[in-house]
Amino acid sequence: MARWQPDAPGRLAAAALDLFEENGYENTTVIEIAERAGLTKSTFFRHFPDKREVLFGGGTVAGLLVEGIASAPPGAGPLDTVAEALDALGRTFFTADHRDFSRRRQAVLNAHTELREREALKRIGLTASMIEALRHRGVPDLTARVAAQLGTLTWEIAFDQWIDAGNGEGFGPLARQALAEVRAAGAAG
Amino acid sequence: MARWQPDAPGRLAAAALDLFEENGYENTTVIEIAERAGLTKSTFFRHFPDKREVLFGGGTVAGLLVEGIASAPPGAGPLDTVAEALDALGRTFFTADHRDFSRRRQAVLNAHTELREREALKRIGLTASMIEALRHRGVPDLTARVAAQLGTLTWEIAFDQWIDAGNGEGFGPLARQALAEVRAAGAAG
DNA sequence: CCAGTGATGGGACTTGGTCTCATCGACCCT
DNA sequence: AGGGTCGATGAGACCAAGTCCCATCACTGG
């Protein structure tokens, strides 16, 4: 039998989410997280650069976005291209069985400034990835920045709705509708 | 003669900026900052909630934005309202004699992830203030969110140009022009 | 059976941040 | 002038985050 149970990072992330829900972020010690996962502080920091990052593990989102933008139909406008990327996100990441986890995670993030700060930084990174991917398609810089910004806003709106939705409505359609509304609001501004 | 020199927060902020430029953010200790200002660690944390915040002291920006939005002409559209607010910022905050300080400060912020993270959080707060002020004028929620988001983007663009500009071009005109470009890019997306 | 490799444990150490108590200076009041 | 109050500072103990180094264990291949 193995001394080491598999998937240490996953166990740490799960333990952290549990403890943050139970006692709050700042009342939870890294040592407590590690102990609940059957590990130690050393191992925690070997897998995550800091305490906050334990909630931002699955870092494939940027890749999905870039891929989605790159594989959009050649004639598509910038915002439609972004919509394509959001769809890809909905198919791979924001799927029905991740919804409960996403809701729990987001509730913790919303409750603690320190975590929302990290979330903001991540969001900037993702927006930058989208801008880069759009420019790679030949979209002018400023247009790409506007489209990415509106895309991020769309994502935010759709995500909130997806989290709150009692029915099992998918992320993709919600994003499509949110994008249409953002577009209309932009035209009205 | 006074035991206490005046303006402890200002001296701490100045000392911090100096030291961050000299040795970098993470190589600078709060104790070092305090000592250079002729104070102690205790006093530092009495004036600033944490080490990062020492670079985000002048917290009147949100007020200026809200005021600018509130005092825009009644008939103005959302984006023009935001332009009004950016103008107010340029008149009061981003004035010619603050340009050098702003450049130094921004250089430090750009160089350290920890500080850009805090900057991102501040930006979110300001965007939220703008949204609230716009809604208070009767702007529909979604329109307000889009306008505020584009306003923040405009700000970012204009600020970068203002920082880099060799000539003494003012922030206001730069923001006006940036907004026009953002508008055009939005229409093209 | 043994050596090498990679993940973990353990503990010392620095720093950010909190808290409490003592101290000092200015101002007020008589 | 003298005493008392109040706000700002100093001093130091204390906890938790994060870094670093080295020992230890399990697995693998010879």
From TrEMBL, chains A, B:
Keyword terms, alphabetized: DNA-binding, Transcription, Transcription regulation
Keyword DNA-binding: yes
DNA-binding region(s), residue ranges: 29-48
Pfam families, A to Z: TetR_N (PF00440)
Domain HTH tetR-type: 6-66
InterPro entries (UniProt xref): Homeodomain-like_sf, HTH-type_TetR-like_transc_reg, HTH_TetR
Listed name of the protein: TetR/AcrR family transcriptional regulator
